[in-house]
Design goal:
Helix content: 25-40%
CATH architecture of the largest domain: 3-Layer(aba) Sandwich
Oligomer: single chain
Shape: globular
Number of helices: 22
Distance between the termini: 19 Å
Largest sheet: 6 strands, antiparallel
CATH topology of the largest domain: Rossmann fold
Strand content: 15-25%
CATH superfamily of the largest domain: HUPs
CATH class of the largest domain: Alpha Beta
Length: 583
């Protein structure tokens, strides 16, 4: 079986009739060492399967009658240990929990998931970080008071099957994958299993479960200070995030490694790292050869003395490599093509000497790219269509879900949580096969402040451009892949130039080969091997839907008539169903 690293547990009010251990269900990369533990009680079983890195930030151990587990990285661990006069993460968690209850998680910074189980009181809490960057999935049966959870969907399914619970395909989740390319809300592909929402804790006590929300993004109170003062505060918070993330590497004696592309987010990350003295950075990127993501990143790395490694995506053949591993890594909950380039790239690297993979994940979204106007707007019936990969079957999804089911302040927050947290975090599922990850834009003290800035400042990323032009101007001299010009130019000029170049390309029938980092249409039109193998994969797997005629017909339609991306959505669903053994 294949899966991501993480944690799991089963608890019931009855004697647990399960002699196995679910850590056997987690994936093992040949190049990765692991921390593997299991423990069984008369009515509970728990375990963890974590990458053997950042070991002091992780725990699986007893403190009195309490079993404490954590997987991930706590960026502010040193500070918390000092302030609370504790010596290790286990003592710290127990002290914070005793003082603050479930809300203790709000004091932590980083990417993590964990649990505390008191065997005397038979009380359990499970938690994930503010944004659920380390997701948890759970099943609860009221009649038997059985609760199963794991970092991995398939582990929960396995636990259910071992205890005699049936699992069924969730049609809503299937259509989420065929439209959005990822799940919405707390859905999964299994009807009986849900995802723990970001910023939440689940408590199991007396055979019942309850939810506690300890954090949720808000646009209120809106920050309306002078723009230069807002930019200064952004700068201070960003530097704090950079220091915590890069110091975590140094704490463990690891080298720095970072993604670098032609966009703004990754360059801002490494620019600030260099500015703060973390200049020894190994960078890597992947794209179609000679596209701007390669040429710009290479120039930035060369002129700033960063080591640089490039991985070519030419011809799209990477879409045929390790499909089962990739689908399994994200449990088939997100379109596999969205992270297959990252997985196949980092699988070629050795992470023994490296620490966190430093990224600029979602920087553009945090600083305005999800805003549609200079003011926040309310959700409408077009919201799902605007965050979807494909609208060909969106009416099917709208039969199950309507916009009133979503509890968000505005369209921007809807897009951030649904497309960002549920979709873009796909890359994290690949990284954690080998190491842990970070993005200073998602450091909660930066994010919380940024999302409350008056939207008129963030619209079209205006404040982002002013910030980097004023605070890291040397990195503004490099072209921005989005426009083909340096971000130092006024926004109206950038947009005018992009429209002009788009018109020229249309008139001259520009070669699609260099239209993006991953020119899907070009690959499909020119790579006969890709076409042939995709058709074979589809034909080999479509029968998993033989008991779901409407879904079967829709997948046949979307695969035969759709774009390469839509074909990948179909293949992801088929592979996921086959992996999960759901009816």
């Amino acid at each position: 079986m294949i899966g991501i690293t993480g944690i799991y547990g089963i608890i019931t009010k009855n004697v647990l009739k399960f002699d196995g251990k679910l850590t056997d269900e987690f994936h093992k990369e040949s190049s990765t060492s692991y921390l593997i533990d299991d423990i069984k009680y008369k009515n509970a079983i728990f375990g963890r399967h974590s990458v053997k890195k950042f070991e002091n930030d992780k725990i699986f151990g007893m403190r009195g009658s309490t079993l404490i587990a954590n997987d991930g990285v706590i960026l502010n661990l040193k500070d918390l240990l000092n302030r609370n006069q504790t010596n290790n993460i286990g003592d710290l968690f127990l002290k914070l929990y005793d003082e603050n209850g479930c809300n203790f998680v709000n004091d932590l910074r980083g990417n993590f998931a964990g649990y505390l189980y008191n065997s005397k009181q038979e009380n359990l809490i499970i938690f994930t970080d503010h944004l659920a960057s380390k997701p948890l999935y759970y099943f609860f049966d009221k009649s038997t008071k059985t609760f199963i959870f794991s970092s991995e969907l398939k582990v929960v399914v396995k636990g259910m099957n071992e205890l005699g619970f049936a699992s069924h395909l969730d049609t809503k989740g299937a259509y989420c994958l065929l439209t959005c390319g990822y799940m919405l809300k707390d859905l999964t592909l299994v009807e009986e299993i849900k995802k723990l929402p970001a910023g939440h804790v689940i408590e199991y006590e007396d055979g019942e479960i309850s939810f506690n929300e300890y954090y949720k993004l808000s646009s209120k109170p809106c920050i309306v200070d002078k723009e230069e003062d807002v930019i200064k505060e952004l700068d201070n918070r960003f530097k704090e995030a950079i220091e915590l993330e890069y110091e975590k590497d140094i704490e463990y004696g690891y080298k720095h490694i970072a993604t670098l592309s032609g966009g703004l987010d990754s360059r801002t990350n490494v620019a600030y790292a260099k500015k703060l003295g973390y200049s020894d950075i190994d960078c890597f990127t992947f794209s179609q050869s000679n596209y701007l993501d390669e040429t710009i990143a290479k120039k930035i790395a060369s002129e700033n003395h960063f080591e640089f490694t490039f991985f070519s995506l030419d011809n799209g053949n990477y879409l045929l490599k390790n499909i089962d591993d990739i689908v399994s890594s994200n449990d088939g909950l997100i379109i596999y093509g969205g992270a297959s380039h990252l997985y196949n790239t980092i699988r070629k690297l050795s992470f023994q000497e490296y620490g966190l993979i430093h990224t600029g994940q979602m920087g553009d979204a945090v600083l305005g790219s999800y805003l549609q106007t200079k003011e926040h707007t309310m959700l409408d019936n077009q919201a799902i269509k605007k965050i979807a990969y494909s609208n060909a079957l969106v009416d099917r999804l709208e039969n199950f879900m309507n916009i009133n089911q979503f509890d968000y302040e505005n369209k921007e927050f809807f897009a951030f949580y649904e497309r960002g947290v549920n979709g873009i975090f796909n890359g994290y599922r690949m990284v954690e096969q080998f190491t842990d990850f970070s993005s200073p834009f998602l450091y909660i003290d930066f994010l919380d402040y940024a999302m409350r800035i008056n939207p008129k400042y963030r619209f079209k990323q205006s404040i982002y451009l002013k910030w980097i032009n004023n605070y890291i101007p040397e990195f503004s001299n490099y072209k921005w892949e989005k426009y083909g010009l340096s971000p130092k130019y006024p926004l109206f000029l950038l947009e005018s130039y992009r429209m002009f170049t788009w018109g020229v390309k249309k008139v001259t029938r520009f070669n699609k080969k260099h239209s993006s980092m991953n020119p899907m249409d070009y690959w499909w039109d020119t790579n006969m091997v890709l076409q042939e193998k995709f058709v074979n994969i589809f034909n080999e797997n479509i029968n998993v839907l033989e008991n779901h005629k409407k879904l079967f017909d829709d997948c046949v339609f979307l695969f035969n008539k759709g774009s390469l991306v839509e074909k990948i959505q179909v293949l992801t669903l088929l592979k996921a169903i086959k992996m999960l053994y759901v009816d």
